[in-house]
Amino acid sequence: MCPALDIDGALVEHYADAAHDALASDETVAAARDSWASFVRTSHGDVFDSLEGSNTVDRLFVESLSADFLFDGLLDALEAATGATITNRDPRANTDTLDVAFGDLHDRILAPEDGRERVRAAVSPADLRSLTPGDLRALYERAVDPARRLALGEYYTPRAVADLTVAAVDPAADATVLDPGCGAGVFLTAALDARRDSLPEDPRERVRAATERIAGIDVNPVAVKSTKLAYGCALFDSLTSVDTVALPVYLADALGLTSESEIRVDGEPVDMEFDTLVGNPPWVPWERLSDRHKRRWRDRYVDELGLQPHEGATARLGHSNDDVAVPYAWTCIHRYLRPGGRAGFVLKRDAMRGPAGAVLRQLRVGDRSLALTGVHDFAALDPFGVGANAAVYAFRADRDPSFPVGTTVWTPGVGTPNYESGTAFRASASATETELVPTDPDDPTTAWVRADAERAAMGECAHDIRHGLKDDATAVFGIDRGTLPRVDEELVYPYLQSRHIRRWGTSGHDLRLVPQRRAGEDNEATLRETYPATYDYLRDHREALLDRQSSWLDRGPFYSVFGLGEYTWAPYRVVWCRLGFKPEFAVVTTRSDPDVGEKQVVPGDHYMFVATDSRETAHFLCALLNAAPYRRTLRGRASDGKASLSKAVVSELALPAWPDTETSRQLADYSMRAHELVAADGTERDTATLDAIEAAIDGLVEDWLAET
After folding, report:
1. Helices (H), ranges, 445-531
2. Interval 132-143: pLDDT, tens
3. Under a CB-based contact definition with an 8 Å cutoff, are residues 345 and 392 in contact?
4. Largest CA distance in the chain
5. Per-residue model confidence as pLDDT tens digits over 222-247
6. Helix-strand-coil percent breakdown of the chain, rounded to 5?
């Protein structure tokens, strides 16, 4: 049984079996399949090739046909119960997008008394009056396999998410609203319900006002029929007072990439400019689009709307957006949103950071600026039930962006969140009010971080922060390749100067003579006996070394090195340059040099570092320090002086001892992987992978800080 309607599940299976049989025996049904498959390939790309198993075209065709069969029978019931005829019931009624009508096939496949009439008889007027897009989604999911739904990019939106989206854009009572990818119609019914009290009381005027103001588009003919059914049921009581109604839900490619069919009502073009856009754009990967589809994106929109902000090797369609959702939303704003209009879209929460959100964070659609006006972040929740991380973003077009932006972060409450409505969700989930701010206050395109996470990055530092080797007497201790024969290579180490550090690695090194293991060590006799070449070299420079003005020389040999300690030789050190504002952190251990071999790296005078014996601890700390919330915090705390990232500044950060949690292990692993991608010369081996790792680190750290 359908969970919402008294429709026997065996009827759907019976219809599907009959449809498979008809494909083999009825040329009309087979021709319809071929026409539909061509339409799907054009509009969705290589969907069938991406599915597992055999006969994927037939299976998806029959499943889509079965869902349409159910909706067709329910539309029969709606018209019979209200007495109103839906004049554009056929999805093709208002456009020339498709040349096959599913509705004409149902009676060929299953006699009406065995099929549609049984669906019609299974529902009462009361059922139809209360029918929701969620009920229709359940019917659709009963008919269409989950893998095939996801291949089409169909993440049906819970009513609660639609309610929050409509509330976030808060359309005026007389504002026009469009969902350019309406699916089952949940956003349209949410918009209808949100303004129900402002619609005229007269039923005829109520229908007229609603259908003039709230419209939808979808490229899936089954979705268009489903939305018309949901729309009609939402107006059930008013439809009993009208003879005919044209429901403003249109079969069309909202982007005009695969077809430019004009939308018409009564033969006249429809004004497709709206005050408000809402919806959940398709989360279809770029690589699944056909080459023709990608070319049309590039030719029509990529340059004009700024959909590809990267340059060089990363400037390829699909690198900066792992799916088409943000470009889809931007293109719809370009095509349909009036000047000064509002838009609310369900997009991935990862768009707040990382390369996949670069287009969104520009807050610009071509020459139109966008102001981000609010965000609902579903954080640890899974409103779609498929592990998709989601957030609602609300925008105001043709307004300059400004920060901070008010943000509501939703997490589980006492029980399971109730997604049946916005009211039910608010009562069952837990809300934290915070703000979004860019990592760099002067550049809103940088990763957006939660202000509460930024504040949480301040805290107790459980580690000692050390200073690198004092960079004095460089003419003596700094060893070039020509000088190497004059000293003992065993005492020469790779040495880091300020130019050598970068995030997740180093780029080159100098060579440094380090004749002691700890500051002030009196090892002159040992040095003279064991390393005579080095001792002679130092003695030749005795006057230059004694000219150094330091009290350390009163307690050690004339060649004393300042800044040494056991920590200098720790197996793992998280290092950073303290000069200027360069928040780039790396873990250093040993480094191979062609002349002196594999040696422990020695941080120089411009460096600070945290020393540890644990590889995991070092990489955990490095991941924290390189994460966007910590960089944002450092930017706010760093001084304008020479030593911006001094011990005093960094020691104010929350740098805990190794917590041995799933999050800490993930962060350590990500840092190790990031270091592997940065070659010894400082170049990145795989920019796209490194970008993805950094985005994952940002998300983990932000959530961890917010929780703590």
Report:
1. 451-456, 474-477, 524-530
2. 888 888 888 888
3. yes
4. 110
5. 999 999 999 999 999 999 999 999 99
6. 45, 20, 35
